[in-house]
Amino acid sequence: MGTRHRMCTTGGHTGRMVLLVTLSVVALFVTVANSAAVMSVDLGSEWMKVGVVSPGVPMEIALNKESKRKTPTTIAFRNGDRVFGEDAQTLGVRFPSNSFGYLVDLIGKTIDNPMVDLYRKRFPYYEIVEDPVRRTVVFRVGEERYTIEELIAQLLQVAKTYAEDSTGQPITECVLIVPGFYGQAERTALVSAARLANLKVLQLINDYTAVALNYGIFRRKEINETAQYFLFYDMGAYKTSAAVVSYQLAKDKATRETHPVVQVLGVGFDRTLGGLEMQVRLRDYLGQEFNKLGKTKTDVFTNPRAMAKLFKEAGRLKNVLSANTEHYAQIEGLLDEQDFRLLVSREQLEGLCKDLYDRVTAPLDKALAASGLALDVINQVVLFGGNTRVPKVQDILRSHIGQELAKNLNADEAACMGAVYRAADLATGFKVKKFITKDAVLFPIQVVFDREGESGATRQVRRTLFGSMNSYPQKKVITFNKHTDDFEFTVQYAELDSVLRGETGTLGSVDLARVKLSEVAKKLKTNVVENVESKGIKAHFMLDDSGIFSLANVELVLEKTVTREEDEDESTFQKIGNTISKLFSGDSTDKPAEKVTEGGAEKEEDETTDGKDAKDGKDSEEQDKRPAKDKEADASKDAKKEGSTGGESEKKTDEADADAKNATVKPKIVTLKETIPSKVELTYVVPLEGDLFDASAKRMAALDEVDNAKKRRETALNALESFVIDAQVKMDEEEYASCATEDEIASIRKRCGEISEWLYEDGSDADADTYEKKLEELRTVANEVYARHWEHQERPQALNALKQMINGSEGFLRNARNLTKDSNPEKDVFTAVEIETLEKAIRSTIEWRDTEVAEQEKLARNVAVRLTVKDITDRMGMLDREVKYLVNKLKLWRPKVKPTPPPKPEKTAKEGEKEETSGEEKSDEPVLEQTPEKDATESGGSEDGGATVEDIEPTATRKEHEGEEGGDHTEL
User: Fold this and answer.
1) Per mean pLDDT, which range of 115-124, 397-406, 520-529, 735-744 is the poorest?
2) Of the candidate ranges 416-425, 463-472, 570-579, 622-631, the one whose mean pLDDT is the lowest
3) Bridge partners of 468?
4) 409 or 613, higher pLDDT
5) Does residue 551 contact residue 490 with C-beta atoms inside 8 Å?
6) CA-CA distances (angstroms) from residue 175 to 104, 263, 405?
7) What is the DSSP string of 221-240?
8) Is 752 within 8 Å of 727 (Cβ atoms)?
9) Which pLDDT score, from 0 to 100, does residue 848 have?
10) Which helix (H) or strand (E) element contains residue 383?
């Protein structure tokens, strides 16, 4: 409150106006910024990083509550409390089954997935059960159950909190980083988890794509029209991946602008090779060594708490051995109060992981093979991911590629920073330099349907929609031209063996969706009439920039033959309807979808989804869609040519004319489209939607309510303890004690003592309401003393501000006296009454100040204040209004403009002759061009007997009139 009064009083009216304008601008900026701040989340298996960007603030990593740049992706529950990050890890050592980590590879998985079995093997102390509806992973702790989506959503909520604390703005949009090998089930499940956290996912971006984007952003100047190839190698906690990408400048066909493009050309991965597997093996080795010591009869592997301690120590030891050749593992009270200490060398760790090191180069080789490039054309192999810091991994890679590795990326934050750049590009509140990303399909997707052959036998047909390493986002269209009745088809993964090499089960269900089409026969019967031919049923598919597959729409395509007469009879509404149908059909004019044809008997199954066949089909369809005017023009040219080559006889001329006439009425082809109803049934993991989503959201809300109540209680308790201690200290200081009576000091001390004693005895378990109530009671007793102290502390500054305002007002008054009619008739701005009113206001303010200050000085500091800061500011406001009134009047005042003398009459012919005879040159210019003001001035003639007329520039006069018309506007 004191600071606010100082800001308002110091500097007088001008300071306050500047302050108000500044606050208005800040408020406007905050309003804009609130709608623009976005974040990215790198939700790794072990660590979580959060990138943020907001208006006026560059891209940065949000800090957590410990002011660290990364947070363990661990969540723990205990006695109704919920903790995250390092607190959850600490609690997990004591209660392992209550702390959950390494969750990202469980999302979108059914209970029978091999990755779930591996998780159980690594962490045997978790009780994992099956969701009765969706068959997904559920953690059970006593009576409580936590689905995998709910746990991930809570981690995303924490990320959102860190981002909002960092930017000071609410955040609702994000870009999430995912492993490239995430399938449809994992991607849709992660989007559902984000919805639970009240976040809108702008895009799911693959980790290597985000890193490649970050790498290219800071090397934009090095990118040119020649493709440059890089290989990004990542070894994280859970998996290892490699990606070959190209950087190149490319021209956008639509905008004709040139932008840098990063395109993924090849990908290889090993989803079980990572730092976690090394840590688990080291944990098991330490457990075996402890059992060998025989310090206790209990097997360490049967004790969850001991295993959690070993796992934590193994993680620390692994990191230390990356920089040292040997180190001691030390755990106090590992089991049955027995300590454990063991010297472990880097060589021993490498021996434990020998078979893992043999797999290090496989993802790199797979990525090169998928890209079709040789290693010698790769500019650099760039490392990222925490476990690429392991010396053995670097040695293996270096010897394999025969060149030095690039380590010029922040291994932990590169992906997060690339993703937040993408988030700024996708959000509406930012304008960034365009950097186009083209990702690649890792798992091909195909359509499978049944078709009856010529012999009557039904056979299964497969058509690939999105092939391996095809770029996305993109659209595809498949045409069914042999079906005349309701039918269905299946969408599923294709060619998985070449990608997963025997690990197909880790992806889950091969089938993705079953699509049922209805009313096919009805639509055909209704629409295929005279002059109308069916061109098949087209299904439009979409693979968006998040890599999520969807069916856009299904439609029956018809071609109607329209003659000239029918075309003229077609109503305007029909034409409009056809136009709208084309605009909202699945085909896109700006980026046409690639077409896959079911094929006739002659094409069979060897027809491809892209390449020449698709292109030819596109060209033929575009040819059919030429405007009717163009076709008619061609026909007219043919007719004219035929007529001009005829003989001289009239018969041939008549025949030519007849042919030309027939040619002009050549029928045209109109494409019609009719929507076919379709029902899509997903055949992989059931998405979290409807009642299931509402139930999870309700459980999340209950947890949030408990957390909010806990935070409120902690805040109230801290506020009460702080106020008690602060009040006791202040009552011992002369500065505050002088503002209170002895009774008040005794009352405050007594009340503080009672509350302090209560806090350490009965009040330790009280609720937030009780703490807030007691704080209010204590404030009621102490605030009177605090208010007096504040008045005595702030009064000198307020009086100084009043003095400055009085001095300024007196100076203005002196100048204003010279702007009255008596003192300056030409500038009579103010009246005598106005001058007298201001003078009286200044005099009364001075008298009031002197009187009140004198009276206040007679009073003791511990009695009621007579001269308050508010009284002073009220007086300043009164004086300010008087001065401001006169200042505004001065701004709006304009000198009176005297009327312009009439122009001189035209000279007569005789006068003209006299001018000619006097030797002056003739002029073709009109005599009326002479300036009357100048003549009047030179002659000295005026209405008041020779007074000089003031010259007024036309521009200045115009501005003055404009000021008169818009005086209020000018003032504002």
Assistant:
1) 520-529
2) 622-631
3) none
4) 409
5) no
6) 16, 19, 29
7) GG--SS-EEEEEEEE-SS-E
8) yes
9) 94
10) strand 378-384
Sheet containing 81-84: order of strands: 81-84, 75-78, 99-100
Express each pLDDT in 95-136 by its tens digit: 999 999 999 989 999 999 999 999 999 999 999 999 999 999
CA distance linking residue 937 with residue 949, whole number of Å: 7
Measured in degrees and rounded to the nearest 5, phi and psi for residue 42 equal -95, 90
- Mean pLDDT score, 519-525: 88
> Using the 8-state DSSP alphabet, how is residue 674 labeled?
E
Average of per-residue pLDDT across 923-928: 37
Looking at this protein, which amino acid is placed at residue 188?
T
Q: Reply yes or no on whether the pLDDT at 604 is more than 80.
A: no
Average of per-residue pLDDT values in the chain: 80
> pLDDT tens across 464-517, in order?
999 999 999 999 999 998 888 889 999 999 988 878 877 788 888 899 999 999
Quick check: helix, strand or coil at residue 32? helix
- The total of other beta-carbon atoms located within 10 Å of residue 674's CB is 16
Buried b (16+ CB within 10 A) or exposed e, 153-187: bbbbbbbbbbbbebbebebebbbbbbbbbbbbbbb
Q: Which residues contact 379 (CB under 8 A, 6 or more apart)?
A: 228, 229, 230
Cβ-contact 391, 353 below 8 angstroms: no
* Structure letter (DSSP) for residue 56: T
What would the DSSP string read from start to end of 355-382?
Answer: HHHTTTTHHHHHHHHHHT--GGGEEEEE
Q: What pairing do the DSSP bridges indicate for beta strands 511-517 and 436-440?
A: unpaired
E strand or H helix that includes residue 3: helix 2-9
Per-residue pLDDT, averaged over 77-101, amounts to: 90
CA proximity to 872, closest of 892, 899, 845: 845
Pairwise CA distance, residues 789 & 426, whole Å: 54
Any residues with CB less than 8 A from the CB of 805 and at least 6 apart, and which?
A: 12, 13, 876, 879, 880
Q: How far is Cα of residue 858 from the mean position of the Cα atoms in its chain?
A: 63
Instruction: Answer whether residue 568 shows pLDDT above 60.
Output: no
Q: How many CB atoms lie within 10 A of CB 291?
A: 15
| 398 close to 404: Cβ distance less than 8 angstroms | yes
Q: Is the peptide bond before 473 cis (omega within 30 degrees of 0)?
A: yes
Contact 558, 535 (CB under 8 A): yes
Report the distance separating Cα 561 and Cα 570, nearest Å: 13
CA torsion 190-194-195-196 (nearest 10°) is 100
| Helix pair 832-858, 869-892: axis angle to 10 deg | 170
DSSP-derived secondary structure for 756-825: HHHHTTGGGG--HHHHHHHHHHHHHHHHHHHHHHHHHHHHHHHHHHHHHHHHHHHHHHHHHGGGBTTT-G
Residues written for the chain: 972
Instruction: Return all residues near 521 (Cβ < 8 A) that are at least 6 apart.
Output: 484, 485, 486
Burial readout 127-143 (b: 16 or more C-beta within 10 A, e: otherwise): ebeebeebebbbbebee
Token pair for residue 728? Answer: 């006791």
SS3 assignment, position 778: helix
Supply the DSSP symbol for 388.
G
Instruction: Give the C-alpha separation, 135 to 110, whole Å.
Output: 5
Cβ pair 237, 387 in contact under 8 A: yes
- What is the spatial distance between Cα 765 and Cα 785, in angstroms, rounded to a whole number? 31
pLDDT tens for each residue of 263-279 = 999 999 999 999 999 99
Backbone torsions φ then ψ of 178, nearest 5 degrees: -130, 155
Bridge partners, 551 (sequence order): 541
